[in-house]
Design goal:
heterodimer; A: mainly alpha; about 85% helix; about 0% strand; rod-shaped; B: alpha+beta; 6 helices; globular
Chain lengths: ~100, ~180
């Protein structure tokens, strides 16, 4: 019984209602009204720069691939042209030989 | 006043018409069906310009030859190769010869060799000219034992200019000026 009583008294003492400190309200209000941390502008700038870099790099790669494709097509056309000229030359050369 | 404007306009319309006339239809489906190999070159417009840019860049072509190549408007080649036994008859070539009998076309050269073992071999060179005598195109019909080549070149190419390509790209020196024969 004694132990229970002591425990009860301690609980009462611990849970006893106490008036708030005088500077609580101004402190809370000051904390609420205080402006938050400013957004980090450099993060946005960095993100924009990364996006811009990716776009520029993508465009450069696309242009390089397009140039490669065009070059390959031009080489194929050149091969066809040389083939056509050589075949024509061979035929005309044979005609020339016959005529002479 | 109006006539003065009409004449250049009519001339401008005639240029593509002459180019159209110099362009031949080279397809020979019956021959292609018997051929063991068919090579087809169709180069005109942007493809021809791109190809010529590379040819000019890669080889030692002179400015005059470059100028001549720049006047090429198109090159079309059909080359058929045959296994032993297959051959090409005159009837096979009639669709092309019929076009070459059209207005503007003149046969410059025809060389025919008769070989009992291998059959007839013929080489023909045709030129297409406009009313002023300017060359608009050229055709070569070459029938060998196991091969048939049909070449159609569009553009103002003089034989002497073609001869100037001799030594480059495998083009032999030609002297066809005084070799013209009637049709």
């Amino acid at each position: 019984m004694t132990i229970d009583r002591e425990l009860e008294n301690e609980l009462r003492a611990a849970l006893r209602r106490q008036p708030p400190p005088r500077d609580l309200t101004p402190g809370v209000l000051a904390a609420v009204c205080r402006p938050g941390p400013r957004p980090r502008r450099w993060v946005a700038v960095l993100a924009a720069a990364c996006v811009l870099l990716a776009v520029v790099a993508g465009m450069a790669q696309w242009r390089e691939q397009a140039a490669r494709r065009q070059e390959a097509a031009a080489r194929a056309d050149a091969r066809q042209l040389v083939f056509a000229l050589r075949l024509t030359a061979a035929d005309l050369g044979r005609v020339q030989r016959h005529l002479h | 006043m109006k006539l003065r404007h009409c004449v250049p306009a009519c001339l401008l319309l005639l240029i593509p018409a002459m180019a159209q006339q110099a362009r031949l239809r080279l397809d020979l489906p019956a021959v292609a069906a018997r051929a063991s190999e068919v090579s087809d070159v169709t180069l005109d417009g942007a493809a021809l310009r791109l190809g010529m840019a590379f040819v000019n860049h890669d080889s030692d072509v002179s400015p005059q030859e470059r100028d001549m190549l720049s006047r090429l408007q198109g090159i079309y080649v059909k080359s058929y190769e045959f296994d032993h036994g297959a051959s090409v008859t005159d009837a096979d070539l009639e669709p092309i010869r019929a076009q070459l009998r059209g207005p503007g076309w003149t046969r410059m050269v025809r060389v025919q060799q008769r070989d009992r073992g291998r059959g007839d071999e013929t080489d023909e060179v045709y030129l297409c000219t406009d009313a002023s005598g300017n060359i608009q195109g050229m055709a070569v019909l070459s029938r060998q034992a196991n091969e048939l080549d049909v070449v159609n070149i569009i553009g103002r190419i003089e034989p002497s200019e073609l001869a100037a390509l001799g030594g480059h790209l495998g083009i032999p020196k030609l002297d066809l000026k005084d070799k013209e024969k009637g049709k």
